[in-house]
Amino acid sequence: MRKFTPLVVNEWLKMSKKKSFIVPYTLIAAAIAGMLYMMYAFSQEKLGFLDFASMAIARNGLGQMTTLLVIICTAGIVAKEHSLGTIKLLLIRSQSRSRILASKYVAVLLFTLSLFVFSLAVALLGGGLVYGFGSASVQGISWSEVLTNTLYSFIYTVVYVTITFLASILTRSTGATIGIGMFLVVLEELVVALLSRYAFAKYLIFANADLSVYLNGNPPMPGMTLTFSSVVIAAYLVLFLAVSFVTFKKRDVA
Amino acid sequence: MQQQSIGNTAQGMGAAAVKSQGQGHEPVVLSVQKVTKAIGNKRLVDKLSFEIRRGEIVGLLGPNGAGKTTTIRMIVGLIGMTEGDVKIKGFSIRNHFMQAIAHVGAIIENPEFYPYMTGYDNLKQYARMSEGITEERIQEVTRLVGLEKAMKKRVKAYSLGMRQRLGIAQALLHRPSILILDEPTNGLDPAGIREMRDYLKRIAAEEGIAVLVSSHLLAEMELMCSRVVVIQEGKFVTERALGEPVEKTEERVNVTFRVGDVEAAKTRLIRMEEIRLLGMTPERNEVTVAVRDSYIPRVVSALGSEGIAIYRIEEVKQSLEDEFLKWTGGNQIA
To answer: Tens-of-pLDDT digits for all 334 residues of chain B?
Structure first.
């Protein structure tokens, strides 16, 4: 039984050794700074740092932008190996293809997680610097709510990242993968709106990906609950990953 | 006991078995068994079988599109096979991929690396994927291919020759029993080709690593390989040992004489038994005959006694290229 961690380390290094690696972190920091400035300068609302962090991390805040950044940064994780030709050297090691693919997926999740932890840290810090660390929240938002928000936003991103991962394997092209990923993120609301009169729409992944709607207590469509959406998300993720792994395992690398 | 059985199988192969001295008793490292790759009705590789023993350098030859690359990719498990199996040190690449591939080091086409990483970082990637590769081993292979000075540079700054060397380093890292190289000299300059050839010969001789090389550069194969396997349209054509030093005196050799008077030489030579006239080139004053080795001195003295001046005596050897064209039908572009 060979160790799995070194494979994840490999994948992480392949991402982090690129010069462009700091770009998403920089953009997120810049976006948070911008948001903070706007809120402080133009909003009459009184905020605490937890209020700000909770807003910033939500899907409607930075969540969607983070998703796009992760899509752009991870679209190449399988496709680039094909276009560089390194896949030939990668797959002739004494490692099964499933394990190699699993290490890639884990690396993508770690990268996503790192972006979220970074966003949260910057948002809390920035909020604290601007509104003062004394008053945690004016609107009565607790730490656990901030963390739940972050978790839901993370899950939302993971859904799209998994779709991108699948697209990366199927298309073997970084450009096409980014295109597909961004297209879906941008069009999800439109698709849901257009199809919402049909009953089957509530089984669409797009309608369920954002769990934060349940925090306010109003489901997007009748009959949907937090549990329902969680199950739908889990089912889709399993499906996407199954297709990814089967395709990757069976593929002839020419 | 095991030695015995290996010897027997080699003999069992009869005429096809290659008579390179002593190597018949080395253990088989790679065994390709009736491997077939079919896409639709087209058979890219059709029931191809051959074996490679320890320390051998075997060339896989064939015209473009003969199925060399497909065969090599099936051997290393990059593409699946429709029928047949490949055994590496007894492990099936289909059923025991991880054990089988652990004995293989390979470069498939040009070696490609992560250009934004240094040579060292690239090697380290592959080191992490196999077990028991120490820092010393990385240094050792780096020295072997002479890249010590370039290890801290990014691969995008490497020349093709340097990448080719890094490719070899990568392939040797986990101490494989067989090295598989697909078109290893593609894009290398003459010095690079020669260097590559010397590496491979040294590795095969010193470490007993078997080497399988595919190429259509015949002259190159002739210099590098101890044996060639020729395939065409996915099928086995022939197998030939190269560079056999012992020539039996009973066998006829083809010899060209350059003489002062071709016509006179021809008339004289025709009178001799045991000689077959193969052809003559009057404009170059040359006569070519097939004759036994032991008979040559008599031909010389016969011509001499007729007063025919001899300027040159040359053996006409069939080059691998001639043979190759004969095997593959010649009209194909090689």
So the answer is: 334 443 333 333 333 334 444 445 789 999 999 999 998 888 899 999 999 999 999 999 888 888 888 999 999 999 999 999 999 999 999 999 999 999 999 998 888 899 999 999 999 999 999 988 999 999 999 998 888 899 999 999 998 888 888 998 999 999 999 999 988 777 778 888 888 888 888 888 888 899 999 887 788 888 888 898 988 888 888 888 876 554 454 567 888 889 888 888 888 888 887 788 888 888 888 888 888 888 888 888 888 888 888 898 888 876 777 777 777 775 544 4
Query: Chain A within 8 Å of B104 (Cβ-Cβ)?
Result: yes
Asked if residue A236 belongs to a domain, the reply is no
Question: Per the domain annotation, does A168 fall within a domain?
Answer: yes
Measured in residues, chain B has a length of 334
Helix (H) or strand (E) holding A169: helix A143-171
Closest CA to B106 of B207, B177, B192, B197: B177
* pTM for this entry: 0.83
Structure tokens at A25: 């972190």
Query: Contact B114/A14, CB-based, under 8 Å?
Result: yes
* Domain ranges across chain B: 2-241, 252-320
The residue ranges of DSSP E strands in chain A, in sequence order, are: none
Please name the residue that has the structure tokens 């994927």.
B129
Residues 69-98 of A with CB under 8 A from B: 84-86, 88-89, 91-96
Domain B252-320 falls under CATH 3.60.9.10: no
Backbone angles phi, psi at A242, to 5 degrees: -60, -45
Is there a contact between B279 and B288 (Cβ–Cβ < 8 Å)? yes
> Which chain B positions have a beta carbon within 8 Å of A98's beta carbon?
none
CATH code matching the domain that covers B2-241, chosen among 3.40.50.720, 3.40.50.620, 3.40.640.10, 3.40.50.300: 3.40.50.300
Cβ–Cβ contact A247 with B under 8 A? no
Domains held by chain A: number:
1
Domain around A148: 5-185
Q: Residue A63 has what DSSP assignment?
A: I
